[in-house]
Amino acid sequence: MNSLTDLSSVLGPHHPLVTGQTVDASLVQAALGNRPEQTPVWFMRQAGRSLPEYREVREGTQMLEACFNADLVTEITLQPVRRHGVDAAIFFSDIVVPIKAVGVDVEIQPGVGPVVSKPFRSRADLDRLRDLEPDDIRPIIEAVGAITGELGSTPLIGFAGAPFTVASYLIEGRPSRDYLHTKALMLQDPETWNSLLDKIARISGEFLRQQVLAGASVIQLFDSWVGALSRPAYIHSVQAHSATALGMVADLGVPKIHFGVNTGELLADMHAAGADVMGVDFRLSLDEASKRLGGNVPLQGNLDPATLFVDADVRERAIDSVLDSAAGLPGHIFNLGHGVPPNADPGVITSVVDYVHQGRAR
């Protein structure tokens, strides 16, 4: 993927990619496999977490309540762009927002994460999931339109959780270290497993589609926990469902980023699910990741988040190492190798952006 064809027929005349607002943005160009003069930078979990202005605006509001409040979503999404000068906004949301929107009883408990009141453990539970409709996420669609209106030439990245990760929350009922219930269902009852992941894939895919139609110029599918699987298990039980989710925006022409944690052994298979750009976590160098992908895939990553807590000279050497590792890539989007830690110093995050921007793309 190295160009954008005429997208007006699918995105409409006012989409930022159609009007030309974001076509030449460094992040969009890097995602298309080009090398803009300046390496683009954004951070996973940049929207909030470490910012005092985020904590102030979120005070007294539960996480999922905030995710369905158009004004809050707009403000929180824009905050890191204003403060850090990053090259893209990532839509403020959560992996469980689409399943909350279709009626699943899920809440995000502080210090714990998503908690499902009644975990999905049998075929009968499939009836608790229905298709996602635009009206289910009307405030979110409104927020995307407001955000892109404010961003101008800075692209918005749409966001959704991949089928395996969303399924793991539904089945385990809360964050897990070993995913025993999830893997057991996958192995014991593949028919129910595939039906569940197909439903989730269509919900996540529709969530991405609506964000793009409302103005997002790029999307990222997060498979946070798929690194818990072996490669054969991923290929046999997950890959096709990730392909379904990504396929639901394929006709819209926007670049698609796919990211997972601890997925070095799965990179080629995750890419085969339909991504244009592969996110790489901090466990694998970008040049090695590129070899595993045949040398022709744009990559995103992959500074270790721990470097946000070291002295500037140590951090700058680590940034240089990432940029050097990315020198031979067809396209490179600078990012952390996972999300921004909530206790990171916002000034340090800004300094990383400035340091990457100071050098020409390598």
Structural features, described:
This protein is an alpha/beta fold and 362 residues long. It has a single domain (8-358), classed as TIM Barrel (Alpha-Beta Barrel), CATH 3.20.20.210. The protein is 44% helix and 9% strand. The chain has helices at 8-11, 16-19, 26-31, 52-58, 63-67, 70-84, 97-101, 138-151, 163-172, 180-188, 190-214, 231-237, 239-247, 267-272, 286-292, 312-325, 346-358, and strands at residues 89-90, 106-109, 113-116, 156-161, 218-223, 256-260, 277-279, 299-300, 332-333. The strands form two sheets. Strands 1-4-5-6-7-8-9 form a seven-stranded parallel beta sheet. Strands 2-3 form a two-stranded antiparallel ribbon. Helix 14 (267-272) links the parallel strand 6 (256-260) and strand 7. Helix 9 (163-172) crosses helix 10 (180-188) and helix 11 runs parallel beside helix 13. The radius of gyration is 19 Å and the shape is globular. The two termini are 20 Å apart.
In the CATH hierarchy, the third-tier topology is known as: TIM Barrel
Order of helices and strands: HHHHHHEHEEHEHHHEHHEHEHEHEH
* Class of secondary structure makeup: alpha/beta
Largest sheet: 7 strands, parallel
What is the approximate shape?
globular
* Span between termini: 20 Å
* Radius of gyration (Å): 19 Å
Note the quaternary state here: single chain
CATH architecture: Alpha-Beta Barrel
CATH class: Alpha Beta
Residue-averaged pLDDT: 95
In percent, how much strand structure appears in the residues? Answer: 5-15%
Helix-residue proportion:
40-55%
Total number of beta strands: 9
